[in-house]
Amino acid sequence: MKNVKTLLCSMALLLGLTGLRAEDDPLPAVIAHVAAHPNGGVPCSFDQAAFQADTRAFPIGVFDSGIGGLTVLEALLKIDAFHNTGLQPGSDGQRDFDAERFVYFGDQANMPYGNYSAAGRVDLLRELILRDAVFLLGQKSKAIVIACNTATAFGLEDIRSAIKAWKLNLPVVGVVEAGARGVMESLPRKGKGDAIAVLATVGTCSCEAYPKAITKAVGLAGKSVPVMVQQGCIGLAGAIEGDPAFVSTEVPRKAAYAGPKPKADLHPIYGFDEAGMIGGELNSVANHVRYEVTTLVEEHRQSGKTDPLGMVVLGCTHYPLVQTEIAAAFEHLRIYRDASGAQPYASLIREQLVFINPAEFTAKELFRELARAKLRLKASDSSIATRDAFFMSVPNREWPGVQLTQAGALEAGYKHSRKLGDFTRHDTPQVPMKPALLPATTVNAIEKLMPEVWARLQPDPKNKQP
Q: Model-level pTM?
């Protein structure tokens, strides 16, 4: 408790120096709330005594604002990048996390996290991220993987500070740092590399998460920092999730359109599929991709920089699900000819693009951190691990004052206007994740693109970790 008080005092001093109001910072309140309930049993708390014993048999916690983080979990389940005995880099024919089990939480009801900063609610976003971490601690997680770029950008340091205050030996790994390391490893040892396109959410881009992390990683490696171009994608993650505010199966829309508005002068360049439009509004994942990629490349062209784009960072965990569509959108622009026959983008896009999916690099970082903390389970310990668990949040229709769209999601105005520090609020309860609760498009994507995750989502009680 002494350490908690010391940390809170330091935070109070920092808030005073920066001019921020204490009520705008959720970290002290969450730390104090958890510290005041060491036995758990109340919302946003956990049994702290459980972490005083050997935690190696505990699961690894993974969270995201929705289902995008399942792409990170898929990478964790598949990766074989180290020797499990000697721990040195290199494949040994055995998956690196075969002996482990995982707990996944997707904060589906509160997503997309990338839009909170635009709504002026970074404080609420940070609290949601901390609550996610506390939920995983309540599931007795021995490590936390922030499988969300926005949550990493806005919450990584908060979670690490809270973990320190609660005196836990618990690694916390975020996808942004890992992704930046992946960029660094892919750049040439000498000379300046091609320009980098960063596709991420508005929130991730607004705080310059990737440019800062890439600059740091590249600089520490003694390499030249390349030109970077960001695109804060407004509705792509929501469209991939099947959010009716971005893609609707009904005409007219039941939910108000919340996606971007294409520019009339760029309409010939976007290459939209008219079947994926409702009037002038985007209504398909492919069209959302075309809009965001075109906007990014056009900004690069107008900047006057001539460095060709050679690397694309998939800066949201949803985006690997549509990498094919993203690659097609870049290729469409590379070969595009205007009415005069000119190719304005041909020299600005490499024919062969390198895609950086931070998931693989996150898996490597987690392996190293677990080994460093001596928390890994060995293959001989595999019998200790029980079945994986999956959770998601859902809107609580019965919560007083809750406001829902016709499709049953939290209304954006309500979602972004909630007060901080209300630990009794139960408008988005956590429930077991089941395919029946997810949009059909999401279920299809998991089944086709994430076979390991799909197998573990099945209700068969005999389905255990190998």
A: 0.83
